[in-house]
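Contributing new records

If you add data, match the layout below exactly. Sequence lines come first and carry their own label; structure lines follow with theirs. Keep one chain per record. Anything else will be rejected by the validation script.
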Amino acid sequence: MTVISSHKDLEALTLTIIAEFETSAERLWQVWADPRQLERWWGPPTWPATFDSHDFVPGGKAGYFMTGPNGETSRGWWKFTAINEPTHLEFDDGFADDNGNPVDELGTTHGAVTFEAIDGGTRMTTVSSFESLDQLEKMIAMGMEEGIKEAMGQIDSVLERSPV
């Protein structure tokens, strides 16, 4: 398992997940930058993602849908707010309707991902920031924390199968 810790900070309205990988930051960066690699791990194993857009530049947008075990779908969107290859990226994140348009019912979260060289590999720290305690609690109740941990657990196989 690549995830080494997760922590909810109710006062700061954040969820932090730390994972370590036996690869370089440059290689790990590619699992975010390449939508075909990204969709092989984004979303838990029972809800794989398909990215239909992925403009990986500051101000760029990504759109995706996850397909559940019974064929149901859930759409999401990202807007990239910072990209500093290969050490840091940030994006706003939310749910979308069937046409990919943002919906406000669960608000927007902000993701910040850092890549730090460690002995033998790279530590990836992902911090999700929420608009309110209510939003954080709803997202956790929906399974966000466990889903992210399961999703990140798939990155090792992507790294093995898709060398740069």
